[in-house]
Design a protein that fits this description.
- 41% of the residues lie in helices and 15% in strands.
- It has 14 helices and 13 strands.
- It has a seven-stranded mixed sheet, with helices on both faces. Strands 3-12-13-11 form a four-stranded mixed sheet.
- Helix 5 links the parallel strand 5 and strand 6.
- Helix 6 packs parallel to helix 7 and helix 13 packs across helix 14.
- The longest helix is centred in the C-terminal third of the chain and has 18 residues.
- It is globular.
- It starts with 6 loop residues before the first strand and ends in a 12-residue tail after the last helix.
- It binds pyridoxal-5'-phosphate.
- The site of pyridoxal-5'-phosphate has 14 residues, from helix 4.
Length: 417
């Protein structure tokens, strides 16, 4: 590719570089566009992470409104200054109690919870006399927030050496074991999604924990897509494996998916919570979770407790969506949570397929690099507990059209929504 840097009054034009990059993404089918949802849209939603269908629930809206009235619309400061209210404490107790954890620490997003957990735990695990002596083992399919946490943790700071990072092949326990066995570092942190966000497959959490225990490592699992969906009443994968109370297991969750709100949390022993309060930069230097979001999450958790069948309903609906796609001849995953993916060979094909679904009244996710490995692409369908037979029939028609009509556009014009 040729880069044209035009000169603007004798100096380089930085925006020309940006435009050239944008044109290159356009040609590769990698443009991304923001599409505003409108109230009352008739589109069938198979794209959101609203797994339990609570997003429009008036009980959550009421809880958010009364939290705003009681505590204000924002938390007014970092959690360490003015950003912790009694509502935050109540939410943390409720989350820990539900998940069988000793404690919880709430963040303003799941992304920031992961950043804090990886960086602060890696730094704290390292021996004080040898701050670079920590190995992080990260699954190749991990979410960007874990990846970014790993990248930050490997940087050398004022305190000394950063961690060493090994990225292991997806769900490869042998590779994890090899990395642990051959390490020269004294400490190790294993990091993995529990349900992988695009493909929707499960991590071998019990196997990872057994390896962590055997090799004196700490295991961090991100239950963003399993909390509220997988396991007894939606308590997640670690809980269903009987590991909820283990001292060498830390969980992160988001409040933005099954709980239909906003925010994140780290679940673990009090030592973990104290480490993050003292050293988690994305907690210390970020405004605390907004009270309405805390109130809505508490209400959603209450609904989940009262309706323990909702998570299973979401999974069953997702299995049916995948079965429909497979029956139509598409290459669909076998879901064990509420995410199903349909693999497509090319980003432009995925964009065209997403548009085809939209013309049939169905909104689906379209994942292209860097959300998936280079050159791959897929549609991502999410199930919701509230989907009906009519919804499934609509989905079936849209997927049949994908099979019949999606072709790579002749020109480069695969425009992302
Ligand atoms: C696996 C995973 N972890 C973390 C996050 C970040 O959570 P949040 O959206 O609350 O920042 C997401 C999704 O957005 C995710 O899919």
């Amino acid at each position: 590719m040729t880069w044209h840097y035009s000169r603007m009054e004798g100096s380089y034009d930085p925006l020309a570089a940006l435009r050239a990059r944008t044109d290159a993404r356009e040609a590769a089918g990698l443009r991304r566009r923001l599409v505003a949802r409108r109230p009352g849209s008739a589109m069938l939603d198979l794209a959101s992470n609203d797994y339990l269908g609570l997003s429009g629930d008036p009980r959550l809206a009421d809880a958010a409104a009364s939290a705003a009235r009681a505590w204000g619309t924002g938390s007014t400061g970092s959690r360490l200054v003015t950003g912790t209210t009694a509502l935050h404490e109540e939410l943390e107790e409720a989350l820990a109690d539900f998940a069988g954890a000793a404690s919880a620490l709430v963040f303003s997003s799941g992304y920031l919870a992961n950043l804090a957990a990886v960086t602060a735990l890696a730094a704290a695990l390292a021996p004080p006399d040898d701050p670079g002596s920590v190995l992080i083992i990260s699954d190749a399919g991990n979410h960007a927030s874990l990846i970014d946490g790993c990248r930050l943790a490997t940087r050398r700071g004022r305190g000394g050496g950063g961690a060493r990072l090994v990225v292991t092949a997806h769900n490869d326990l042998t590779a994890v074991e090899y990395a642990l066995m051959t390490r020269t570092e004294r400490a190790a942190l294993i990091v993995s999604d529990a349900v992988f966000s695009v493909a929707g497959d499960l991590a071998p959490v019990a196997g990872l924990h057994a390896l962590a225990r055997e090799h004196g490592a700490l295991l961090l699992v991100d239950e963003a897509h399993s909390f509220g969906v997988v396991g007894e009443g939606g308590r997640g994968i670690a809980h269903s494996a009987g590991l909820a109370a283990q001292p060498d297991l830390v969980r992160t969750i988001t409040l933005s998916k099954s709980l239909s709100g906003q925010g994140g949390a780290v679940l673990g022993r009090p030592e973990v919570r104290e480490t993050l309060i003292d050293t988690g930069r994305s907690m210390i230097f970020d405004t605390g979770l907004a009270p309405p979001a805390a109130g809505a999450a508490l209400a959603a958790l209450g609904i989940l407790r009262e309706n323990p069948e909702l998570p299973q309903q979401a999974i069953q609906v997702t299995k049916r969506l995948a079965a429909i796609a497979t029956h139509l001849g598409l290459c669909a995953s076998e879901p064990t949570a509420a995410v199903a993916s349909v693999v497509l060979a090319d980003p432009r094909l995925a964009v065209a397929a997403q548009r085809t679904c939209a013309t049939h009244g169905v909104s689906v996710g379209c994942f292209r690099p860097p959300s998936v490995p280079e050159s791959g692409a897929c549609l991502r369908l999410t199930g919701r507990a509230s989907l009906t037979e009519i919804d499934l029939a609509t989905a079936s028609r849209a997927l049949a059209a994908v099979r019949d009509h999606s072709r790579i556009p002749e020109k480069s014009g695969g425009r992302a929504p």
